[in-house]
Amino acid sequence: MRILGIETSCDETAAAVVEDGHNLLSNVVASSMALHAVYGGIVPEIAARSHIEAIIPVIDQALIDAKCSWSQLDGIAVTYGAGLGGSLLIGVLTARTIAIARQLPLYAINHVEGHVYANFITNTSLSGYQLPAKQPLFPLLALIVSGGHTQLALFNDHFNHRLLGRTHDDAIGEAFDKVAKILGLPYPGGPSIGIKAKDGDPFCFRLPKARLTSKYDFSFSGLKTAVLRLAQEQIGESFGFPSIKLPERLNEAQKANIAASFERVAIETVVDKTILAYEEFKPAAVVIAGGVAASPELRQQLANRLPIPIAYTDPKLCTDNGAMIATLGCYKVQRQQATADPYSLVIDPDLTM
Ligand code: KG4
Ligand code: ZN
User: Fold this and answer.
1) What's the whole-number mean pLDDT along residues 267-294?
2) How far apart are CA 127 and CA 55, in angstroms?
3) 59 lines ligand 1 (CB under 6 A)
4) DSSP H or E segment with residue 298
5) How far is the CA of 146 from the centre of ligand 2 (A)?
6) How many helices (H) and strands (E) does the chain have?
7) Residue whose CA is closest, atom 23 of ligand 1?
8) For residue 26, what pLDDT is reported?
9) N or C, where is the chain less crowded by C-beta within 10 Å?
10) Binning pLDDT at 50, 70 and 90, where does residue 285 land?
11) What is the mean predicted confidence (pLDDT) over 4-9?
12) Which CATH number fits the domain 2-135+315-334, given the four candidates 3.30.200.20, 3.20.20.70, 3.30.420.40, 3.10.580.10?
């Protein structure tokens, strides 16, 4: 069974073909990241326009790389939420049109749930991928950490999951991106803070971990503000000093120490709750998903603290991609989940899990 996955929820225009829910036949990603980098964050209008330009060539390339013709496909899976409205529209309208023209079943995919399914890909003949040897077992605890989401979910089986907790404000990836901006480090903040942190002392500064009444919920806005106050304090200016002027006044050692201290605390926050959930629910496996799952610091801290082994997928499958969407699509077919109507499927930018 072969499914074409289409993903356009943010700035990546992505398409991939996955076979039988585990074999990656192609994975094509065109990113408009460079266009956004100058603004220090995603500009929705630029993202949507870039999707229009890239979507057809990206899908064509995914079929070419997979050596797959339209008639060899069993369906199309497309992200319909959550995400940026303009961006989602391009993917959904393209998928709807193809489904009608090629008479293929259409599956509507939740982006956040899709991220988890990157961990089910275990085989590929494509070069440059490091994949887990086996698929994760149920019950499965998933830590989903991206630019738009921070949540813990317990999957008892495919299509049977419960949300344990989520962020009340910023997502962890968003906090990385905002702190990078304060320190004058390039967008996206996750990788650039990771690199800068290598030169710093992770215990140099004490930064707060949010305490919330519900045990598996998160909050990162206080940590982000604490970093801003710390940077202002370091250069001897009051809290009124504008954040955009901070990077030129901070020296490289200060930036490295702030980056390292922030990274340690932000990652510890999600690891603490993952361990807590592991102890309560004793899942058979733990997976991490979403862009921040590419973080070597997260991978290290979890491996050190979890009492069971954890397998990580390739960082290219952690950030947004079509492969995770196609993989979840395969399970929708296999478990006879409802198809979407190609004449009426609408986007849902605020979709939750
Ligand atoms: O999943 P994703 O590609 O898009 C969303 O669905 O949001 O995640 C993007 C986020 C960004 O905030 C970026 O800073 C973060 O993932 N990220 C990382 C790394 N690569 C991307 N964070 C930490 N370490 C990385 N290597
Ligand atoms: Zn994502």
Assistant:
1) 98
2) 23
3) no
4) helix 296-305
5) 6
6) 11, 10
7) 190
8) 98
9) N
10) very high
11) 98
12) 3.30.420.40
